[in-house]
Amino acid sequence: MDLTHEEITNGNHSDLYLSILLKNTPEEKTAVLREYRKRISDSKKADQALSLQNEDVLTAVKNLVDSSNEMQISLSLEIENILLSELEACQQVIDKQRLSISNLEKQLIQKRENEKSVVQSVRKFKEDNQKELTKIAAAHQEEITRLSASHQEEITRLSDSYQEEIRKLSDTPQKESIPSFVLDPSPLEDEQSIESIIFEEEPKKEEPAAKPEQDLYYKLSAWPDFNNLTKGDKIIPLATRLMAQQMSFKQMEHFLGGPTQKPRLLLFIDELSATGLLTTTHTKEQSAVINEKPETNNRLQLFKRIRSSLGI
After folding, report:
1. Do 297 and 194 form a contact (C-beta atoms < 8 A)?
2. Mean of the pLDDT values across residues 206-228?
3. Strands 198-200 vs 180-182: parallel, antiparallel or unpaired
4. Whole-number Å distance between alpha carbons of 229 and 234
5. Are the C-beta atoms of residues 182 and 198 closer than 8 Å to each other?
């Protein structure tokens, strides 16, 4: 068996030459060459198998890489989708917040406008009220001035009427004005029992009714019931108050019933003070009248004063 050209030119087959040279017979040399060729064939087959196996491995690796790329792409897409969904949710929340902020800003603007409107309304209301108060004050001042002048005229007229009535009473004959009286049938224990005297005037000829201003002098003795009255009660008629302004506290006191009726006098003083009818003379008399001790025989003293004032 001859060597092939490849076997001759392959320098790596030096061990094959040596093995052939060591053999003596051609059969042995052929067996060595055959063995060598078989080994070489097995080596090629192994190389091919290994090459195929390597290709399979490369294919598997390539497939694995492709699968990994697909998984990575899929994962990337999934992550991207999640991020997009989260981003959309965040965007929706942001939009809602913006809308809420916008509504709050509108409400705040509306509230400020309402507050401005309220402030303007209050300011206008105050201005209108101030104008109305000024107008009312001016009207009241005019009314007070008018009433003051009217009252002053009335006081002057009543004072003249009062003086005229006094003069008429002074000029009347004594026998026509002296009243007769009848004693109470109850026993008189002492001088103070004169309080029970009942006065009766003798019947007179019917005369024309007196004018209202002529009757003012006698209204001071016609007081209402003073029971359960407190300070500030309006118990004195206007005409009586105007006449009382011309009198001293002592005269008022006796017409009210004497010093024992000091609560009446104090109520009278309070009302005169509240209506502004007290004069400087009254102010000087007030402390003396309030601090004065009651007199005895009040009715008798009152009777004497009435007679004296009537010129009897």
Report:
1. yes
2. 43
3. antiparallel
4. 9
5. yes
Determine the Cα–Cα distance for residues 266 and 32; give it in Å rounded to an integer.
167
Domain ranges for the chain: 5-77, 215-309
Contacts of 20 (CB under 8 A, 6+ apart): 29, 32, 33
**Nearest-CA neighbor of 199 among 176, 175, 220, 182?**
182
The pair of three-digit structure tokens given for residue 156, joined into one six-digit string: 């002057």
| Helix 262-274, helix 280-291: angle, nearest 10 | 150
Query: pLDDT higher for 17 or 194?
Result: 17
B/e letters for 72-85, b = 16+ CB within 10 Å, e = fewer, are eeeeeeeeeeeeee
Ramachandran region of residue 227, left (φ > 0), alpha (ψ -120 to 50) or beta? beta
Question: Per-residue pLDDT for 199 more than 50?
Answer: no
Torsion of CA 312, 166, 258, 192, to 10 degrees: 10
